[in-house]
Amino acid sequence: MTTCCNPTDTQTETRADNPTAKPRYFVDGTKEAYEVRVELPGVAKDGVSVNLEENVLTIHAKRKSAAPSESKPLHRELSDLDFTLRLRLNTEVDEEKMTAALEHGVLTLRLPVKETAKPRRIEVQ
Amino acid sequence: MKLTRFNPTALARVSDFDEWFRHPFAGFPSVGQFFGNLPEFLSTGSTGRLAADIHEDKDHYFAQFEVPGVKKEDVKVELNNQLLTVSVEKKEKTSEGERSYTLTRSVSVPDGVKPDGIAAKLENGVLTVTLPKAEHRKPKTIEIA
User: Fold this and answer.
1) CB contact under 8 A, A77 and B46
2) Which of A81, A100, B68, B133 has the greatest number of CB atoms lying within 10 Å of its CB?
3) What is the span of the domain harbouring residue B85?
4) A104/B69 Cβ within 8 A
5) B11 in a domain, yes or no?
6) Is A71 on the interface with B (CB under 8 A)?
7) Interchain CB distance below 8 Å, A74 and B125
């Protein structure tokens, strides 16, 4: 997989017109499926949207600020930007069989490779 | 002739701790800086090692750390002699198997904090440590007689 489309590309931006950060992510692949793990700390289940269109996977997540509302910041190192991640898949995946789970702030996506895209042996007559 | 990689980030880290000297939480530099500096072990904050946010309201201080993928049993929060230490064990699954490493951050806790009331909560990969202020640290309004 490769990352494509910098979030600041204006012609493809329909959502996320505010600046976003790219989260840390890991991709493991086998012939059967891709597994994508994205670190999304501070994001609740309802804040994530996963979209697969024309082999581009787009993940957009809204952070929930965990700091109590009345508080005053003394020292800031964490960012409070929302997350956007775009990945181009070089193999076709079966979106019907795609699964996503969010736990402990990590989104795990399982993308099974489409049957027709799996490697095949061709017999020589 | 051999080309080796120059890693300036290791040196840059040490200067971070002077930021801490400007407010009550001034404390030790991140102990984790000395744990090796392979880039994939860094978390997303600017200090690169268990980044933290500190907030306060009139009754409490709040320290938040981003620890995605970490379960409650892998987090240790300790208070020893006014030093609050958060240690996190991260396990990562790779194609070769599992790999685990520890991240840690220490902050010195000012005496204006009630040590028995400190609480910690882990939600959505964010650890929030709440430290109640001792009475003399709370803002007070003084009546004019």
Assistant:
1) yes
2) B68
3) 28-137
4) yes
5) no
6) yes
7) no
Q: Residue B105: inside a domain, yes or no? A: yes
Q: Tell me the pLDDT band of A17, cut-offs 50, 70 and 90.
A: low
B10, containing H or E segment: helix B9-14
CA dist A60 and A101 (Å) reads 14
Best of B18, B41, B42, B53 to substitute, by most chain A Cβ atoms within 10 angstroms, is B53
**What distance in Å separates the CA atoms of residue B67 and residue B41, rounded to the nearest whole number?**
12
For residue range B18-45, list pLDDT tens digits in order: 344 444 444 444 433 333 333 333 343 3
Q: What separation in angstroms does the CA of A41 have from each of A37, A102, A107, B49?
A: 12, 10, 10, 15
Domain total of chain B:
1
Q: What is the pLDDT of residues A59-117, one digit of tens each?
A: 999 988 767 777 888 778 888 889 999 999 888 888 888 999 999 999 999 999 888 77
What is the reported pTM? 0.68
Q: Considering the domain boundaries, does residue B145 fall inside one?
A: no
Q: How far is CA A16 from CA A23, A51, A88, B20, in A?
A: 15, 14, 19, 34
B49 domain-assigned: yes
Q: Which amino acid is at A52?
A: L
What structural domains does chain A harbor? 2-7+21-65+78-117 (2.60.40.790)
CA–CA distance, B105 with B53 (Å, rounded to integer): 12
User: Cβ contacts of residue A6 below 8 Å, gap of 6+?
Assistant: none
> What are the φ/ψ torsions at residue A60 (nearest 5 degrees)?
-125, 130
